[in-house]
Prior knowledge:
The complex is a heterodimer. Chain A is an alpha/beta fold. Chain A is built from 6 helices and 12 strands. Chain A has one domain (2-240): Rossmann fold, CATH 3.40.50.880. Chain A is 29% helix and 31% strand. In chain A, strands 2-1-3-4-12-11 form a 6-stranded mixed sheet. In chain A, strands 5, 6, 7, 8, 9 and 10 form a 6-stranded mixed sheet that branches. In chain B, strands 2-3-1-4-5-6-9-10-11 form a 9-stranded mixed sheet, sandwiched between helices. A 6-stranded mixed sheet of chain B has the order 12-13-17-14-15-16, with helices on both faces. Classes of the chains: A alpha/beta, B alpha/beta.
Amino acid sequence: MKLNICHLYPDLLNLYGDQGNIICMKKRLEWRHIDVTVTLCGAGDPLNAGDYDLFFIGGGQDFEQEVLLDDLKGAKAQAVKSAIEDGKTMLAICGGYQMLGHYYKTWDGKQMDYLGALDLYTEGHPERMIGNYVYTFADDPSVKVVGFENHSGKTYLGSGVSPMGTMLKGYGNNGEDGTEGARYKNVFATYSHGALLPKNPKVCDLILKTALEYKYGHAELSPLDDAAETAAHDAMLGRLL
Amino acid sequence: MSFIHKSDKLTCMRLRTFIALVTCRMIRRILHLFGRGGTNLPGTVALRIDKNLLKTLAEGVTAIAVTGTNGKTTTSHMIEQILIDAGYDVFTNRAGANLISGITATYVENATLGGRPIKSAAVIECDEAAFGAVSEAISPKVIVATNVFRDQLDRYGEVTHTLGKIRAGIANSPKATLCINADDSLITTLADNAEAEVVYYGVNVPIYKKRVHEISDAPYCVRCHGIYRYDYVTFGHLGGFYCPNCGYKRHEPDVFVTETVAMGSENTDVRMVIAGREYPVRINLPGGYNIYNACAAAAAGTAFGVEAETIVHALGHFTGGFGRMEKFTVDGTEMRMILIKNPTACNQVLNFLSNIEEPVAFSIVLNDRDADSTDISWIWDVDFEQIAKMGDHLKALYLSGTRAEEMAMRLKYADVPVGKMKIIKDDVKLIEACAESSYPVYLMPTYTAMIDLRRMLTKRYGLKAFWH
C-alpha cells in the first residue's frame, strides 16, 4: 500500500508547527511499512489532484493570505474543490480551514471571498481566541481531541457540513455554539494546531485509514506503541478537565 | 503671583517623582528580602504614581536601545563591554526586565533620590511590544533592531505585527541613529521612514557548513509579494536576498563580516569590516548567530562614536548573558545553559550543538507558562531530527518542564531512540542525573525553566562561586 500526500501551500501556510502533522502522518505510515510520499505544492505550482490521496493545508499569517488568494483565483481552486467533492481525504487547520469556506469578513466589514468548498463562513472578531482546548471527536465520541487554538475569526457552519467535534473546554468555532471544526465528506477541518495529530494519534489513524480505504476499498492499520503520544495527550487533558 | 504658582507646580512634580522613586526602591528591597527578584511590581507601582518617571530619569542619560526577536541580551552585553572599554560609566537592564516597568526600575536604581542619573550611559534591551513607549520615554541616541522572527505567536501575533511595533518605537525617537540588520528583509524596511542616520550591518558570506532544515519566516517580498531569491542564506530568512519582481534587495552594509575563520566550541573568529577597515575579530562566544550579535554591537559602537580598535577588543573579552551559553560545573560535570525560546533561536542552537564531535548529554526543559509561550507548537518547526543524526555522540537526553511529555513525543517523531530519553520533572533530580553524566551536559531550558533552574542551582550548589 502507498499514500501520496500533498502538502498545499507549505510555503505560505506553515505558521503553527503544522509541519508536525506531516511528520506524524509520514511516520505512522512508515512504522506500518506503508509507503508514503509527501509532495509540496506551493503558490504558483500547478496541482494535479489526481496524483494524490490525502491533502493537508495549514494555518498562515494575514500577510501571506493575500499571496494565497491571488494564487487560488486560478485553476487550483477548482482542482481542490473537485478533489473534495470526489471524496478525497483532506485535513485543514486554522487558516486553511477558514479558506475552504465561503468568505471571511473582517470586523470592520471588509469581505474576502474564499474557496466555497465547504458550507461555512468566518467573521473577524477584535478579540483573539487563544489557548489550549479540548473537544469530543464527532467520528468517535470516545476520543477527546486536545490542541491549541489561536484565531480571531469566528466560524459559523451552514447546513451542508457538520462539526468535527463538540467543545469541552475552550472556544472552538466561535465560542458561542459549542461546535468545533467541520466535517464534510472526507474533509477534516479544525482550529486545532499544536500540532494536532501527534498527540491525537487516533485522529491521525482515522484520517490515514479514510484515505487508504478510498484508494484500496479496505484498509486495516496495525496497532502501534502509543505510550509517548498517550502521555502527551493525557498530560494536557488532565490540565484542562 | 504667576512665579509662585509655577514654582509650586514644580515642587509638586518633584515630590511626585520623589515618592515614585522611593516607593519603587522600597518595594524592590522588600521583594529581595523575601527572595523574590525579577518581578514587574516596583516599576509598575512607580509608574502608577508618576507616569513620567522614566522620562524624567532618562534626561541626562545617553542610551542605546536594543530590540528585535533574537539576540537582544547578548548584543546588549557586547555593547555594554564596548562602552565600558571606551571609558563610559554605563548601566544596563537584565533580560527579565525588558518591559517598561523593569526598565523604569533599572533607571530608578541608577539615579539619586533627587532623580539625577548616577551614570551617564545606558544600554537598554527592550521587548518589541514595549518598544514604542520605552523609546518615547528614554529617547535613545542609538537604536539597534536585530531581526524579526516568529516568536510567541500567542503573545506577539504575526511577524509583520512585531515589525510594526518596532517601527512605531523608531518613530517616537526620530533623532536616533538606527542600526539595522541588512540581511533581514523585514528589518531593513525600518529604514523607509527613518529621519536620522542608518547604519547597516550584515554577514557577507554563509556561516554554516551544514545547516539545519528550517522554514523561512519571510519567503515573500514584503513590498510586492514576489518570491525572494538568495545569493546565499546564513540562517532563517537572513542572507543576500533580492526580489526579482520589484527589485527590493539587501542594502550594502556598513559594518560586515567578510569571512568566518574558525568556529570553535568556546569562541568564533571572523574578519569584520568596521569603519572601512578590516579587522580579525574574536567573538568571545560560540554559535553562528553570535556573529550577527557582534556585528550589531559593532554597528552600535560606531554609531555611539567608539573607535573600531576598542570595539574589536571588547568583543574578544565580553561575557555572555543570562542563559546564553553560561558555563558552570556541578560535581565535576561541565554544564552549559542555553536558552531556547523560538524556532529560529532553537535551530541556531542545534546548528551549533549538532556540529560538536565529542560525546555529550542534553537536557531540554520545556515550559509553557506565559513568559515562555503558552503555545508550544513551535517545537515542530525545529529540526530536532539533527539530534538523532548525532548518533553515538549523544549519550543521554533528559527531559523536564511542564510539557516534558510533548517534548519526548516530538523527539520520538524525530527518530531519537526512546531508550535514550528520560523524563525527570523535578529540577533537583534532573540536575543530579545530569551531574552523574561523565560527558559535558548542554541544558536547554525555556525562559521560566531557566529562571527556576538558576534559582535552584544558586541555592543548592552556591552556583555564583563557580559561575564563569
